[in-house]
Structure formats: structure tokens, C-alpha cells
Automatic annotation (TrEMBL):
<keyword id="KW-0813">Transport</keyword>
<comment type="function">
    <text>Cysteine protease that plays a key role in autophagy by mediating both proteolytic activation and delipidation of ATG8 family proteins.</text>
</comment>
<keyword id="KW-0653">Protein transport</keyword>
<keyword id="KW-0645">Protease</keyword>
<keyword id="KW-0072">Autophagy</keyword>
<dbReference type="GO" id="GO:0005737">
    <property type="term" value="C:cytoplasm"/>
</dbReference>
<keyword id="KW-0378">Hydrolase</keyword>
<keyword id="KW-0788">Thiol protease</keyword>
<dbReference type="GO" id="GO:0006914">
    <property type="term" value="P:autophagy"/>
</dbReference>
<dbReference type="Pfam" id="PF03416">
    <property type="entry name" value="Peptidase_C54"/>
</dbReference>
<comment type="similarity">
    <text>Belongs to the peptidase C54 family.</text>
</comment>
<dbReference type="GO" id="GO:0008234">
    <property type="term" value="F:cysteine-type peptidase activity"/>
</dbReference>
<feature type="domain" description="Peptidase C54 catalytic">
    <location>
        <begin position="66"/>
        <end position="343"/>
    </location>
</feature>
<dbReference type="GO" id="GO:0015031">
    <property type="term" value="P:protein transport"/>
</dbReference>
<keyword id="KW-0963">Cytoplasm</keyword>
<dbReference type="InterPro" id="IPR046792">
    <property type="entry name" value="Peptidase_C54_cat"/>
</dbReference>
<dbReference type="GO" id="GO:0006508">
    <property type="term" value="P:proteolysis"/>
</dbReference>
Length: 408
């Protein structure tokens, strides 16, 4: 109860405050409010980014403010839970107070799985009853994805917090410890690999984690092809550090630009010791899902288990300057062409405009290397300047600097 009061989850009502002029980006989709010429009703239009093709643009008649709310509430929301089976090697039956980064990582992976099995344009309708074969398949896949994150030690829930904690023990972590975004990325790489041994549906997925802010293209291409030469859909996770004790503002335009990419599945990070799952932005505010709401465990293996606690109707925002410099960026590439397109598109977005040192070297968010990590005899020459060293903050940050949107 105190946790939910502390993080202002008492009401959970949508209070959305959007600028009428500024576009809102949400995982590659753009929404902007414009005045209707025929009435006083405010609607959402589209915003054109120079690097987006015409086929990526949305129809203004179909995309409106209600569409944004539906898009947001369709993302899977995975939060603290209580009264689940005791975690291995502990007496804990809840992750409240320590598991927020694991939950944020689960939401990032859930978005990748939604894109993989349902598609980015899929929307959840809480009142709809499937009455066509396509709707029935979507409903089954929706529930199946949630089951994979079920809070129980089971091979049928390969991405559960129980599985993640067990995998973390191999690296010295235990239940109750706090996990960083880079560590969580490697946990999910292991979890998906293990899941593929038990579940054929994970055979078509490959998780790659960048090393030292470098994506080795040779490694990605080699790992993302099965024994018969077929491409496995790629989940690319890139841990980065973007400041000393605070987020370095020179990277703000680069970071927000990533939310306009169709391959983007979000960013896990947050405030110091307060993890969040970032999925979009408007102006200088990041839109996020917060895992700190502690809810009772749901038995996802019960017939027709309730879905409402896995979807959030209340978008929150955080000023980008409040963001912790440690985060992990995620991309999903269904095809090899998607991966090559990502490489070509992202190059111009990840370098801070006009920012270089006295030797003319630039400091992008991350880089692509055409070779293999095994061939690298030294760390990539992408060392950050002194004002971009790692964060050393250890405070929990009890202040709640996030803001709810409010409808104008």
C-alpha cells in the first residue's frame, strides 16, 4: 500500500496534457493534435520526418487522440507483483522495492514479442469478443505472450521473474538485489536462448546485446541465421552510458529521435534507482510505463484470466534531464532488410549535432562495426569525454519527478 501511495498509483486515471502544436511519438508512430476545419473538436494529425518513407505515414482521418490512447494502452504493462511463489534461494514472494529493472526489461521484451507475433499495428480492445478467425488468433497470441512472463517458476513461463532471478544467480545476483539495464539485457539473451530449447516458437528469435556501445554486424548476421540459412527475427539490445552523475543534454535530440524509428521497441532506464520503460516523447518529456505499481499476482494459466492489470491507461512523463545516464536501447528487426535499414537510418540520428572533441572525433550513442567482436584486439575508439563518465549515484530518489499528462 505504501509503495503505491509513494509512487502515486492511487487513482490510475488517464490525465493527459498534450501540446496542441507538438507531435507525440510513440514507438515509431506519430500523433499531433490539429484543429478540425469543420468543428471545434481537436484531432490528431501526422508529422512527417525527413527519413520516413511515404508508406510509413498515417492517415490523419484514422489517427486521432483516441488512437494514441488506444496505442498506449495496448502496450503490455508488467509491474511489481505480490503473493507469487517464493523466489529461489530466498523468502521473497514479491519483487516490490527491487525488481523494477527486471519488470522494465520484461516490458521491452514483451513489445518485441508483440511486434513478432501480433505486429506493431495490433491494438487491444478490452470490450471486444473475438468473432472472426483472425481476432481469435490475435486473442490467443496476446494471452500467450503474457503467459511467458507469468510469475511462477515454470518452463511455460520462460521470461518470468523467477527465471530471470535464477539466471542472475550465475553472475552473483540474488533475489532482492538491484539490477542494471545492461545486466538485464544479458539475462534476456540467456532466457530466450533457453526458451528456444523448450518452445519452438522461440526458434525464430535471436537476442543480440551490443558490447562497449558497439554493434558488431558480423556477429549479428552470424547469430541471426538458423542451420538452414533462414533469418531469425532480431531483438537488438544496446546498453549505453550517457553522462556522469546526470544525463548529458547533448544526447537528448539523439535519444528522442530513436522513438521515430519503426524498428524501435523502447528504452529501459529511468531515474537513479527508479527504473522505467520509455516508449515515446513529446517535446522534452519522455512518455513511459512505470513498473512500480504493486499488484496481486494473476494466475495466467487459469482459463480466461483477467487482462486489465497487464495494460495501463495512464501515460506518465519524465523530463529528459531527469533521466539516469545508464539505459538500454531496444530494436526489433523482423527481416534482414529491416536490420540493414536500421543501420542506414540510424547513423544520422545517433551523433550529437556539432559535438566533437579537439581532435575532431565524434561521440555517437553507439556505433556499428562491420566485423566480429572476436576480431577486435582493442576496445572500439568510442571513448567518452570526461563529462560522460559512468554514473555513481546510489540514491533511490524518493522524489517523484514524473508528471501525468492532463487533458486540456
Amino acid at each position: 500500500m505504501w509503495n503505491n501511495v509513494k509512487y502515486d498509483f492511487s487513482g490510475m486515471k488517464l490525465r493527459s496534457n498534450f501540446s496542441k502544436e507538438s507531435p507525440v511519438w510513440l514507438l515509431g508512430k506519430c500523433y499531433r493534435r490539429v484543429e478540425s476545419p469543420s468543428s471545434e473538436i481537436t484531432e490528431l494529425g501526422t508529422d512527417v520526418a525527413a527519413f520516413h518513407s511515404q508508406s510509413d505515414l498515417m492517415n490523419g482521418d484514422e489517427e486521432n487522440f483516441e488512437a494514441f490512447k488506444k496505442d498506449f494502452s495496448s502496450r503490455l504493462w508488467l509491474t511489481y507483483r505480490r503473493e507469487f511463489p517464493i523466489l529461489n534461494g530466498s523468502n521473497l514472494s514479491s519483487d516490490c522495492g527491487w525488481g523494477c529493472m527486471l519488470r522494465s526489461g520484461q516490458m521491452l521484451m514483451a513489445q518485441a514479442l508483440v511486434c513478432h507475433f501480433l505486429g506493431r499495428n495490433w491494438r487491444w480492445d478490452c470490450d471486444a469478443i473475438p468473432n472472426t478467425r483472425e481476432q481469435f488468433i490475435e486473442s490467443v497470441n496476446h494471452r500467450k505472450i503474457i503467459k511467458w512472463f507469468g510469475d511462477k517458476p515454470s518452463k511455460n513461463s520462460p521470461l518470468s521473474i523467477h527465471t530471470l532471478v535464477t539466471l542472475g544467480e550465475e553472475s552473483g545476483k540474488k533475489a532482492g538485489d538491484w539490477y542494471g539495464p545492461g545486466f538485464v539485457a544479458h539475462l534476456f539473451k540467456k532466457a530466450v536462448k533457453l526458451a528456444s530449447e523448450e518452445n519452438y516458437e522461440f526458434d525464430t528469435l535471436n537476442v543480440c546485446v551490443a558490447e562497449n556501445c558497439t554493434v558488431y554486424i558480423g556477429d549479428v548476421l552470424q547469430e541471426s541465421v538458423d542451420s538452414e540459412g533462414r533469418w531469425k527475427s532480431l531483438i537488438l539490445l544496446i546498453p549505453v552510458r550517457l553522462g556522469l552523475e546526470k544525463f548529458n543534454s547533448v544526447y537528448a535530440p539523439c535519444l528522442t529521435a530513436l522513438f521515430s524509428l519503426k524498428q524501435g521497441i523502447g528504452i529501459i532506464g529511468g531515474r537513479p534507482k527508479h527504473s522505467m520503460y520509455f516508449i515515446g516523447f513529446q517535446d522534452d518529456k519522455l512518455i513511459h510505463l512505470d513498473p512500480h505499481y504493486c499488484q496481486e499476482m494473476v494466475d495466467v494459466w487459469a482459463p480466461d484470466f483477467p487482462l486489465s492489470s497487464f495494460h495501463c491507461r495512464s501515460p506518465r512523463k519524465l523530463h529528459i534531464s531527469k533521466m539516469d545516464p545508464s539505459c538500454c536501447i531496444g530494436f526489433y528487426c523482423a527481416t534482414k532488410d529491416d536490420f540493414y535499414n536500421l543501420i542506414d537510418t540510424v547513423q544520422s540520428l545517433i551523433v550529437p549535432s556539432g559535438k566533437s572533441n579537439n581532435l575532431g572525433m565524434e561521440y555517437p550513442l553507439f556505433i556499428f562495426d562491420k566485423g566480429f567482436s572476436r576480431d577486435s584486439t582493442f576496445s572500439p575508439q568510442r571513448l567518452p569525454p570526461k563529462d560522460l563518465e559512468y554514473s555513481i549515484s546510489s540514491t533511490d530518489g524518493d522524489d517523484n519527478d514524473t508528471e501525468d499528462f492532463k487533458i486540456i
